[in-house]
Design goal:
This protein has 90 residues and is mostly helical. The protein has a domain at 15-62. The protein is built from two helices and no strands.
């Protein structure tokens, strides 16, 4: 969110920027971008979303998810790298 032509003042906290004005189009929903919509929708959309939900809930319920530690026992903070598309690399 650092492209100033798309997000004016990206470092400023401004929830109002997401309120749509009458002349603006609605932003694309990530689910529609991924699975399509109307006649061209992916027939396994619900299966995929339910499977992802079950996997994430199972991981959170059974594993202790926390930051890795270095040799001195201090937590290592991962640095995310922005990229185009729906994913983000760590």
């Amino acid at each position: 969110m650092t492209k100033r032509n798309i997000y004016p003042e990206p470092s400023l906290f401004s929830p109002e920027r997401w309120i749509m004005k009458d002349d603006q189009k609605e932003p694309r929903h990530p689910s529609k971008v991924t699975f399509g919509f109307r006649r061209r929708i992916c027939p396994s959309k619900e299966l995929a979303e339910d499977s992802i939900y079950i996997i994430v809930v199972s991981i959170l319920a059974t594993l202790n998810v926390q930051k890795a530690k270095d040799a001195q026992g201090k937590p290592i903070t991962p640095h995310g790298r922005n990229c185009k598309g729906l994913t983000r690399y760590l």
